[in-house]
Amino acid sequence: MSNHIEDQLSAYMDNELSETERRQVEEHLDTCPECSELLSDLSGIRTQVFTVFHSIEAPEGFENKVINAIALKTTPENVSKGSNWLLFPVIGLLCFITIVLVVMGSYLFKFGSIMLKVAYNLIHVFGDILGSHTYIIAGLIGLSIVLIVASSISIKQVLKRSGFKGANW
Hints:
By secondary structure, this protein is mostly helical. It contains six helices and no strands.
């Protein structure tokens, strides 16, 4: 079926064509028996659908049942607690932070690299101070041992008082 208008027949039946398109379809229908027959078939099907559709009636009380079913589904138990209201401000805040990071990215990178240099230098300074004074290192080790022993004794006492069954001391 080349050069036929079957794609336009539905629009023609529904009065959706412009005046020019409508005239072209009517001219084609006057000269083409295949398209005229297809239009006749489509009109028949349309009539049958409308007839069947209008003959269907809803059962008695159907409208009230639908309304009640909808009302049951929208009770406060089934309705969301409103947790979505927080979504928009959070998204807005994330967008703002992203924009700030993009705009300020080079400055933040410079600041971060400066802070890393400062931390690196502080570690070296403390290392040099501790490495040059053996008495400071020995004192810190001794203090650490005393803290570990005191902590274990206090934990032992707490466990005995609370009646911990796994303690065999």
